[in-house]
Amino acid sequence: MPLPILYSFRRCPYAMRARLGLLLGQCQVEVREITLKAKPAEMLAISPKGTVPVLQLPTGEVIAESLDIMLWGLHKADSPAAQQLLGQTTSAQSLINELIVQNDVEFKPWLDKYKYADRYPEYSQADYFAKASTFLVRLEAQLQQHPYLISPALSLADFAIVPFIRQFTAVDAKRDLNGDFPRLMAWLTELTSTDIFQHAMTKYVIWQTGNTPNYLLGTSISK
């Protein structure tokens, strides 16, 4: 049976999120790395909006939202470990959803303006940094309560949010955030150092029709 096909762009935090979700669920897919300057016609035919990630299932169904791809991967796994990541109580599930929504709806727009401040001259880069940092304050407070965002154990929220915090800190690599956000920076270092995150950041050649397929799962990886 044909495998699902994931159209991805390595540096995009949404695509990172999708790859992490599929790895957590141990879902084998064909990875088609694209370049944003020349999006393949095959991807645009199934998802005209032209953003990544896009997951095409063998049935023809298309999943074009990163969080939905994560959830598909974890539900596909149907394992106790996957269920733990999704939250084992209603309150945990609610908090997971709340943090991810805040990341996507509030934090990411400020992150984009902070990263591309020259495109948004209404305010200074320092102003955009301050606006974005309100989310970091909340995450720091969460991590003062336990090692991970929701509880002493990793959850969907940790993996769904870490690509965006990574992107935020990379905007100005010389800026030291350890003073204001020590727990968050330790959390970021820990998660981005894991085997699964490193696996998610595998470099692939740009996909073209007729290329030898690249597959997401390789040697065994640690969760």
Question: What's the gyration radius in Å?
Answer: 18 Å
Let me know the largest β-sheet: 5 strands, mixed
In the CATH hierarchy, the architecture of the largest domain is: Up-down Bundle
The portion of residues forming beta strands comes to 5-15%
Instruction: Tell me the number of helical segments per DSSP (H or I, 4 or more residues long).
Output: 9
Largest sheet, spatial ordering of strands: 4-3-1-2-5
Helical/strand content category: alpha+beta
Whole-number average pLDDT?
95
Uncertain regions: pLDDT < 50 for 5+ in a row?
219-223
User: Please, how many domains?
Assistant: 2
| CATH class wording of the largest domain | Mainly Alpha
Shape: globular
How many extended strands? 5
InterPro entries: Glutathione-S-Trfase_C-like (IPR010987), Glutathione-S-Trfase_C_sf (IPR036282), Glutathione_S-Trfase (IPR040079), Glutathione_S-Trfase_N (IPR004045), GST_Omega/HSP26 (IPR050983), Thioredoxin-like_sf (IPR036249)
Domain GST N-terminal: 2-81
Domain GST C-terminal: 89-214
GO cellular component, one term: cytoplasm
